[in-house]
Structures are given as C-alpha cells and as structure tokens.
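Q&A log
Question type: sequence-to-structure
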Amino acid sequence: MAVTIKQAALIVAFLGVLSFIFGVVAENKKPAAGTPISGKGMVICKYPSDPSVVLGYLSVAFLILSTIAGYWSLFYPYKGKSVPQSVLFRSTSFFVFFNIALITGGLAAALLLWPTITEQLHLSRNVHHNPTATCPTAKTGLLGGGAFVSLDSSLFWLVALMLADNAREDHFDEVEKDTKAANLTDDYHVKGASV
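Response status: OK
Response body:
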C-alpha cells in the first residue's frame, strides 16, 4: 500500500506531538534540587525519583523520528511519480521552510539533550569531595523550551510538505502541458506530410 501525503503529514505531526509531550512532562517531573547529606570531607546528594532523564531521551528519540519522517515525506514518490529535488528547491518558499525545519530540529535536539545529559550526570555522579557542594539539577526551562521547539520543527516540516506538494503539482502540470504540445506538433507534422 502506497503512502499518501495526508498519511505522511499525520505521521510527522504525531511524532512531533509525542516529542513535545515527553519534553513537557520531563520538565514538569524534574526535581528542583537534591538533598545534601554531609559526611567526612564530602557531600552525597540524594535525589528523589527522577523520570526526567528517560522522558528527555524519549523526547529526543521522537524528535529524530519526526525529522526523519519529515525529510522522507518531502522526497517520497507519491502515486509512483518522483520529482527531481531541483524542482522542489526551485521554490524559494520551500527552500526557506526546509532550512528552517532543519535548523529548528537541530536547536530542539540541543535544547533537549543538554539538560537531559546534565541531569543524568548529576544523578550518577552524586558524591562530591567538596564539603560545601550543593545538589543542583539541570537548568530549569530548557526541556520545556526544547519541547516547544521540537513541536515547531514538526510544524515546519508540515509546511515544507505542503509547499513540496504544490511544487509537485506544478511540475506535473508543466510536464503534461509540454507533452500535449509535443503531441500536437507531432500530429501536425504527420498530417501535413500525408497531404
């Protein structure tokens, strides 16, 4: 069964929304700080249960899948008809939204990975040999911001897909028009030669 443009758009949107939801939930579940437990010349940080690391990585995974699906959806040969990439990139609007989708996808990945990895490091390296150490967590707001940029990225992929669909239709109309003109010219030469 061939994939339609509507199905591809739904896949991109669904994956983008999942990335957004996991990112927002990760931001909300992140603890404000850990509890320092002082020892002889060191501090051990005890953190409450923290699902934000797993949720952050899930958000990144769905962002990557959304980006791959968005990129794939632009160049997929719908109805068995492929279009040269040069035809799509001839459209200035498509070129702009394609690049915006790529840039926002990269920015979203950075905003999601930075606090997720930082939080994972805080949880795994919880013994500090500095008696004045505090028990911090990752920066507040980055996961939520990354989640919103992730949703923006999937929306930009959808806009690029709509523009690619318009460019495809224009290209096929042009090809059909050229084919009809060539057939009329051939018919004229054939009939003219037999008279």
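Response note: The longest strand covers residues 35-38.
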